[in-house]
Design a protein that fits this description.
The complex is a heterodimer of chains A (282) and B (200). Chain A is α+β, with helices and mostly antiparallel strands and 282 residues long. Chain A has 3 domains: 12-60, no CATH class; 69-119; 120-281, MucB/RseB, C-terminal domain (Phosphorylase Kinase, domain 1, 2-Layer Sandwich). Chain A has helices at residues 12-23, 29-41, 46-63, 72-82, 87-91, 94-119, 121-137, 142-148, 154-165, 263-273; strands at residues 179-187, 195-202, 212-219, 231-233, 245-251, 254-260, 280-281. The longest helix of chain A is centred in the middle third of the chain and has 26 residues, at 94-119. Chain B folds into 2 domains: 3-79, RNA polymerase sigma factor, region 2, helix turn helix motif (Rna Polymerase Sigma Factor, Chain: A); 92-184, Arc Repressor Mutant, subunit A (Orthogonal Bundle). Helices cover 63% and strands 0% of the residues of chain B. The chains are: A alpha+beta (282), B mainly alpha (200).
């Protein structure tokens, strides 16, 4: 595709390649200019882009099948542990540390069980389903951005959240890690009060280009068993959501939920927000 | 990159590695063995130190190691007819464009089975590219790196694959619509229903 579309509209095949590259977040700067010119003249082609994005999303769901062996993750983690720096030094006080950890783990387990009972298994399931399905079912589209998100500047979003939840969210400079803010709207996390959905997309030319990432924030209503300063991973039970990464943490009265199919993007948000990588399952 | 952080990123990708290994080996036990081999090989300190995120991240790096480990372990004769199936570059699907009028208001309900059937009809080379694109969310350059093929080949195989899958979906929908068996687009009731999730 050349950059002379003002005088030479593309043939149907080139047009399809352009629209698909746009849907995939794979446009070069020259193609992006072509695309914007083309879309201005043929707004109906936004439907094709939307169709292609839906197709990718639905294929991802339909083709993710097969039970994963539950013990395989442990084996992989053992291999990783063997590679960790300082492993030999840790070996000497191993028994002492293991004893302390065992006692701490029992205490933590008891504490979490009490909290989990408050949170409820059913509540957790609904939360995972909602967060997983929301990411899969709501790909970023031009139409959706216009119709469903009523705040399009991050600064306004922060002010709005502070007004609603009483505290400003802390996410750091996500632009610098390659994620652009696309918009914010209200959303209803099951069983909770006001929550807001901030959507980000990987910037063109960055390593996260085309990546979708959602951040949900809600006020701490005391129902979630979260400890300030701890980052949790929510593990989907169903295969169709297996590739979705979900991280949760609480800070200064706000609960944060990060949802993305891209591990690197999720961890980049944690680093940007100044929270540790996940150490516990929720 | 700090090794501890690298290990966290890498181990978080075990499911993607297993999915890919399972598709390559078509056998859960061989897939598990392959995953172990991959992580044993990939997480050696000297290998981590040499990691460079060229054209992709940790996921595509691990998948590339998986693909190469599979090739080196597999009996080449058994691969005939699978990954090495030549792709017909003169396939008519390569020249098909998609029209806005055909995709408008396409009804996505219950398409999963049809998608799986349509993907099953693809040649193995195109299917592998499609899977890495749709399931593993890799970019064109990353897919080229994993499968060790030129990016142009990735783009042409992907274009052909999604055209065939789209044609299959749209022709089914139109055939059913012609027979009056299903309605395309939202019904007035559905259109008036409140949104389930994000609201402006």
């Amino acid at each position: 595709m050349t950059a002379h579309m003002e005088n030479h509209p593309p043939d149907p095949l080139e047009r399809t390649r352009l629209l698909r590259a746009a849907a995939d977040g794979e446009l070069t700067p020259a193609e992006r200019r072509d695309y914007e010119i083309h879309l201005a003249r043929h707004p109906e082609d936004a439907r094709v882009v939307e169709f292609e994005q839906q197709l990718r999303s639905r294929l991802g769901t339909a083709l993710t099948v097969g039970e994963k062996p539950p013990e395989l993750e442990d084996r992989v983690r053992r291999i990783a542990d063997a590679s960790r720096p300082g492993r030999a030094r840790r070996f000497v006080p191993y028994l002492v540390a293991a004893g302390i950890l065992a006692v701490a783990a029992v205490g933590l387990l008891l504490a979490l069980r009490r909290n989990v009972d408050d949170f409820g298994f059913q509540g957790r399931g609904k939360l995972v389903d909602f967060l997983g399905a929301h990411a899969k079912e709501c790909p970023i589209t031009i139409q959706r951005t216009i119709e469903e998100f009523n705040v399009h500047r991050l600064g306004e979003a922060v002010t709005d959240i502070e007004a609603r939840l009483g505290s400003a969210p802390v996410l750091g400079d996500l632009d610098s890690v390659g994620l652009s803010f696309r918009g914010m709207g209200l959303c209803g996390i099951p069983g909770h009060g006001v929550s807001l959905h901030l959507q980000f997309m990987g910037q063109q030319g960055s390593r996260l280009e085309g990546t979708m990432l959602s951040v949900y924030v809600q006020g701490d209503d005391g129902r979630m068993p979260l400890v300030d300063g701890v980052t949790y991973r929510l593990q989907p039970k169903t295969e169709e959501l297996a590739s979705v990464q979900m991280y949760v943490w609480r800070r200064a009265g706000i609960d944060y939920f990060v949802v993305t199919p891209h591990v690197e993007a999720g961890l980049a948000v944690l680093a940007s927000a100044g929270v540790a990588p996940p150490t516990q399952m929720l | 990159m700090d090794r501890t952080r690298f290990l966290e990123l890498a181990t978080a990708e075990w499911k993607a590695v297993y999915r890919f290994a399972l598709r390559l080996t078509r056998d859960p036990h061989r897939a598990e063995d392959l995953v172990q081999d991959v992580f044993t090989q990939a997480l050696r300190p000297e290998r981590i130190a040499a990691f460079e995120p060229r054209g992709g991240g940790v996921r595509s790096w691990l998948l590339r190691i998986t693909y190469r480990a599979h090739l080196s372990k597999a009996d080449r004769s058994r691969l005939e007819g699978t990954l090495f199936t030549p792709v017909d570059e003169s396939d008519p699907a390569a020249g098909v464009a998609i029209e806005a009028t055909r995709v408008q208001d396409f009804d996505w309900d219950g398409v999963d089975e049809r998608l799986r059937a349509a993907v099953g009809e693809l040649d193995a080379g195109s299917r592998e590219v499609l899977m890495l694109w749709a399931v593993e969310h890799l970019q064109y350059q990353e897919i080229a790196g994993v499968l060790d093929i030129p990016i142009g080949t990735v783009m042409s195989r992907l274009h052909r694959a999604r055209t065939k899958v789209s044609q299959s979906l749209l022709s089914d929908a139109e055939a059913a619509d012609d027979l009056g068996l299903r309605r395309l687009g939202p019904s007035p009731t559905a259109a008036a229903a409140p949104r389930r999730e994000t609201q402006p």
